[in-house]
Amino acid sequence: MTTGFRKLPLPPRKFWLFCMTIGLAWVGGWLFLRAGLPLPWMLGAMTVVTIASVLQLPVFAPAKLRPPMTATIGVMLGVGFHPGLLQSLPGWLPSIAGLLVFSIGSGLACSVFLHRYAGLDRTTSFFSGMPGGLVEMVEVGRQHGGDERTIALIHSSRILFIVFSLPFLVQLLENGSPLGASAAIGVPIMESHWRDFVILFGVGYFGSVIGQRIKLPAPQLVGPMLLSGGLHLAGFISFVPPQELVQVAQLVLGAVLGCRFVGMPAKSILHILTIGFLMTLVLLGTVVLCAFAVMMVTDLPFSSLVLAYSPGGLAEMSIVAIAIQADAAFVVAHHLIRVLLVMLGAAPFFSLLCLILDRKSQARDGPPTNGG
Length: 372
Known about the structure:
There is one protein chain. The chain is mainly α. It contains 15 helices and no strands. The termini are far apart. The relative contact order is 0.17. It has one domain (10-361): Up-down Bundle (Na+/H+ antiporter like fold).
């Protein structure tokens, strides 16, 4: 009976678990769609699969599904590249300066919260609180002696809550306008030509390969985005991924996010989620303050600034930007700069901070005395 599954990329049991998980994700997306909630296919899938994880149901979504879905989003982001983009870059300097202030301020605020109120050690608190990439912060935190599992879980919960709460916040900022399918999404899949799929898979694949070769941050998203953007700017293509493929990408991304807590005891999941929720409140408060301050000195839209500063997943924040027809290139550029700033600056800043704190501690305790 199982001979037909030998060619599957997953063992039979995991294959059926994955099918069940995608079924649950679809139900979540459908329920959110019927309720008129924002980004239903991603948030609904993420919500239902996360609940299943907490209830210890055997949900499963392999992380290797994320890259092709992310590449699809990257190709779609490239559609937003236009000739006036380079002329807009100087106007982004104030918001980039605000991003630097936000990255330092929010990172320190979250680190202090995690150390003083969540009871984590100094190293784990610092690298759990930095608004950078999950993989990078786990690795650097481990090198400095932090608890890598705790760092990974807190970052996962931070991304989960930011991704879930931000669309509602943006919808509120947009005076209740629904966040669903955007005009930037292409025609239905049955109306697409076969050449469209060749373009999609070709740009997605080669963009990902190029992104990995030249070591771009988030290469599966940024590589296809840049290749797609360059081809659109040059006039070689005018392709947008079909609606159904974009919805499938959102569904899978939501399911993968919801599966990050699989295998943990329910009590541990709820504890991490509580910490992540409280930290998200700190982050969103800092995001709103910084975005408002930058908006007061520029003509940049408040909702675009909130999206650009919110430290959720790059692919997920890009989807929200597309949904409200914001400047996706602006949002992606700021997220890339934030990730690079934190990735390059977190370790040296932590070493400097430890040096300052140790000197203060020595000055307070006084010089060591000779026994006797």
